[in-house]
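S.,

As promised, the phosphoric acid mono(formamide)ester run. Input:
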Amino acid sequence: LLNIDRLKKSQISDLIQKAFFLKENRDLFQQNKPLKDKNIILLFLEPSTRTKTSFEIAATFLGANIINITSANSSILKGETTENTLRTLNSYPVDALIMRDSIDNSHELAASIMNCPVINAGSGKSSHPTQNLIDMMTLNEAKIFLQDLKLTIVGDVSHSRVARSSVAGFSKMGSNVSICCPDYFKPDTFGEIDVQYFEILNEALDHSDVVMALRIQNERLSGEKVDIDKYIQRFQITEKLLIENNIKALLHPGPLNEDIEVEKNIWKSKNSLIMNQVENGIWMRCAV
Ligand code: CP
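Predicted complex:
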């Protein structure tokens, strides 16, 4: 699973159905342990809380052996390249590699080296397919369906792998995706996908069923001058705005920077699905 683009619409629907089945029938597969004696490597070369923990719990539920490798606990710290690290790992009996990296498309490099399935757990600013699958599942669970859904992504779109996978995945499933951000966070293009751009939050919300808030990715900024007070004034998502604009659901992939892209405690507001996204991470990753 390298990229959401590579999945057919029917495969996305199947994964969502499978994740619901697993969520409802946890005892069944926890007893059967379908991944017993399988070795799964979690290669996380960039920090993660949600993705890493939920993949690890999912693999544990399924009975796999889990090998954790990070930049801090591996020979990458001694200068070994990602390519040589992957080649080394491929010499072992590995049944799947789950990989996160700050470099765009390094999962493609992994797939070209490894003789086992590779799962992209977040790649630079290019893609994060399992987050997109989780978000679709979470909306379906809330009885919000994807065909003709008006979804607006608000925040630092240009540095966001979640935004890129969301545009690709939601558009494939028939949703209309818009973005709302200052011009310095607006990507040049989403390839062939037509994405409407709003610079004024109220106009964007007026046009939306569902909002996805994104944090400012400070670790990926390259010279953009963000006046944070002005940014908050123009783009912060508040409960009042969600209510005034009849927004059906608020998504946020995390990590959450409260008081910046969203107001404090919005995660527990009525239409927030933020904690549902976190919980569903386990079931979608079991399905994957
Ligand atoms: N959404 C997400 O990928 O969060 P983490 O970086 O904590 O895994």
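The beta strands are 39-44, 65-70, 96-101, 118-123, 150-154, 176-180, 196-198, 210-213, 249-251. The CA atoms of residues 236 and 261 lie 5 Å apart.

- D.
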